[in-house]
Amino acid sequence: MFRVLVSDAISEEGLAPLRTSAHIDIVQKKVSEAEGELHTFDALLVRSATKVTEELLEKMPNLKIVGRAGVGVDNIDVDAATKRGIVVINAPNGNTISAAEHTFAMMAALVRHIPQAHISVKSREWNRSAFVGKELFGKKLGIIGFGRIGSEVAKRARAFGMTVLVYDPFLTKERAEKLGVSIQSLDEVLAAADIITVHTPLTKETRGLLGTENLAKTKKGVYLINCARGGIIDEQALIPFLESGHVAGVALDVFEQEPPGDHPLLTFDNVIVTPHLGASTVEAQLNVATQVAEELLHFFEGQPVTSSINLPALSKDVYEKIQAFYHLGRKLGLIASQFMNIPVQELSVTYAGTVADLETTYITRSLLAGFLRPRVASTVNEVNAAMIAKERGITYGEKFSDETHGYANCISLTVHGENKTFTIKGTHVPNYGDRIVHFDGVAIDFAPEGHLLYIQHQDRPGMIGKVGNVLGAHDVNIATMQVGRQEAGGKAMMILSLDKPVDDAVLNALAQIDDIETVKRLEA
Ligand SMILES: NC(=O)C1=CN([C@@H]2O[C@H](COP(=O)(O)OP(=O)(O)OC[C@H]3O[C@@H](n4cnc5c(N)ncnc54)[C@H](O)[C@@H]3O)[C@@H](O)[C@H]2O)C=CC1
Ligand SMILES: O=C(O)CCC(=O)C(=O)O
């Protein structure tokens, strides 16, 4: 049974896909009300109210996935989640239209003084001259951040007869042309726009993007809108520009602190505000809840998730194609790590044959996770493997080759340690399974499954019998045995698969046999 804690208000209808599963138990409670049972949850579903901090993650050791029913993940410590191997997913486009429409509603309300006029009429006044506005038609709209929401705002602006100026350092020329906008520098947008709306995420680069210096570059009488994230427009820096009348009006849906409390900006008549309502429509909430609920279901069914923040994107189709190699990669990493039980600096993975044409990033991550698993105490999986490898000074890289050694596909892993290099190669045979076909310089053929014993010895007659006797004397049954050698009379090896793991006494007894040089237990 998977336990899901839904800690913010999320559309009931959207949660339906999760409710249909007999294996999922949904608990709807605030984190503060679930203190005593936090350790029992496998998944956490939030909007923006719950702060998913490192401290909270520490209290949830069983947590495997955090779902954000929305776009921005700035309420989630993604690095802390990644370190713990927790997948973070969001609903990247379920609320795009709602946020764009809200931005537009704010823009119209701002230039036509609708909220102020509304309050006035409700106060039994009829003051038509106090609320003379401006048309949007013919005005220049500056859009900072031209992703999903920014581009939807642009479409609506063009329909209103506005000229759209765009600043987004990551926007390609091709995409800009496709969307019918021209890319400008930030300074050009600031200098020319009558209205500026921001649609970036809140990052180190965008925090305070519209601060004192850049606000001074704007046109006198400019209108500003922030329906993205509090802090992109510096709230303190705005105050003197409002006081001097340089900024004619501001529309804010988001704040540096939410709720903003007794904020000085709220005292300005020409600052209009909403309580983070951009995504608050029936449609958006249904969309985002359905998207994350479906993704959670995929995750628990062992299928790939496509909207992960901290994993490479993987579609179901691609996953089906790589699945077998994903498992083979994990086994190669796991076996290599145990065999090379010394500090290592570098892993080099080479793909050849049919596997080389697939999405190998995921296979490499799986291999890396397999490699790190015996070495780290904490959870390691394909989410945090790259980060853990980096922390431990292990670099890794992928190569592609035509050398398949006669197999349809071949994955080769070379591990570079301080004084030793080890190579293992494997192949996946459809309807048969995984095979290790090369082990430390020797061609061999065994299934990477269960309790394995590696014995390296000199190639002499009678070795198999001696090993069999020792194992028999210790009541260890041999399931399979594969032998290989570099040359007659030279380095040779046996890989045995056993019905149960062997203890140190067995390893020591085997190591006493003349001509046996190394004995290692390998679990696959
Ligand atoms: N008020 C609300 O309820 C809602 C707010 N949002 C927020 O709206 C914002 C935009 O969301 P989406 O359009 O879905 O995101 P997106 O990821 O599709 O677009 C963001 C764009 O910002 C650009 N960008 C990044 N750094 C930049 C920089 N330094 N300068 C200029 N552009 C930069 C990126 O290249 C990208 O094109 C996010 O902050 C999101 O959290 C989203 C939905 C609802
Ligand atoms: O959940 C909400 O209402 C906030 C939406 C939002 O800000 C986002 O999706 O980034």
UniProtKB/TrEMBL annotation:
Q: Does the keyword Transferase apply?
A: no
Tell me which residues make up the ACT domain: 452-524
Q: In which pathway does it act?
A: Amino-acid biosynthesis; L-serine biosynthesis; L-serine from 3-phospho-D-glycerate: step 1/3
Source species, domain of life: Bacteria
Reaction(s) the record says it catalyses: (2R)-3-phosphoglycerate + NAD(+) = 3-phosphooxypyruvate + NADH + H(+); (R)-2-hydroxyglutarate + NAD(+) = 2-oxoglutarate + NADH + H(+)
Please give one Pfam family short name: 2-Hacid_dh
Q: What is its EC number?
A: 1.1.1.95
Q: Which GO terms describe its molecular function?
A: phosphoglycerate dehydrogenase activity
Q: Which UniProt keywords apply?
A: Amino-acid biosynthesis, NAD, Oxidoreductase, Serine biosynthesis
Which residues does UniProt call coiled coil?
none
Functional note: Catalyzes the reversible oxidation of 3-phospho-D-glycerate to 3-phosphonooxypyruvate, the first step of the phosphorylated L-serine biosynthesis pathway. Also catalyzes the reversible oxidation of 2-hydroxyglutarate to 2-oxoglutarate.
Q: Its family?
A: Belongs to the D-isomer specific 2-hydroxyacid dehydrogenase family.
- The protein here is known as D-3-phosphoglycerate dehydrogenase
